[in-house]
Design a protein that fits this description.
Length: 190
């Protein structure tokens, strides 16, 4: 990802194009020092690591991913504190990076996202699960070897043809496309 970066406050100045990558603050391969921090929060540190590793609260953008590597948090703080991205300076301002801090940051970022990108003003009613019983009764009434089309099935249940496909048993009923051509999924019984 290439982004143009500028400080959020103070005079705007371009820092040029920078290639940013996703950084796991709590590293993907933790050292014993990182596991010790997770142990302070209680529970099995290896399990905690697995739970927190790819969460929103542990991820950030940086142009120095390779430099950050598996370093202790204090080294990462030094590098993130000079970042032109506000979200990195906030990480650098914390005293430690454990489960509590990762979860709190995830909550904060989620709240920000909701404020920045609110959902639609209108909430549309979600369609109820379709009642397939009418289709099943109609198919049961068709004599063996009778032909129908996906379009006719769709009209019967007031739907697009695709949802009804899975309800046409192979071999029992023949189905054609609305063009009259035999549907690809039809197989001869026997």
């Amino acid at each position: 990802m290439t982004m143009r970066c500028a400080p959020r406050s103070g005079p705007r100045r371009s820092t040029g194009s920078v290639r940013l990558t996703i950084e796991h603050v709590l590293p993907q391969t933790p050292t014993q020092e990182w596991l010790d921090v997770l142990a302070e929060d209680g529970g099995d540190p290896a399990e905690r690591h697995k739970e927190l590793l790819h969460t929103l609260g542990n991820l950030t953008l940086t142009a120095v991913n390779a430099t950050l590597s598996n370093h202790p948090f204090q080294r990462k703080q030094d590098l993130l504190s000079v970042s032109h991205l506000e979200l990195n300076r906030q990480i650098a301002g914390t005293s430690r990076w454990g489960a509590k801090e990762i979860l709190a940051r995830a909550e904060d970022l989620a709240d920000r996202a909701i404020r920045l990108w609110p959902g639609p003003a209108e909430v549309h009613q979600v369609e109820k699960a379709r009642d397939w019983s009418l289709l099943h009764r109609a198919l049961a009434a068709l004599p063996m070897g009778a032909w129908t089309t996906y379009g006719e099935v769709a009209t019967l249940i007031d739907s697009h043809p695709r949802p009804g496909l899975g309800h046409l048993p192979l071999g029992r009923h023949r189905s054609r496309r609305d063009t009259g051509r035999v549907a690809r999924r039809w197989r001869s019984p026997g």
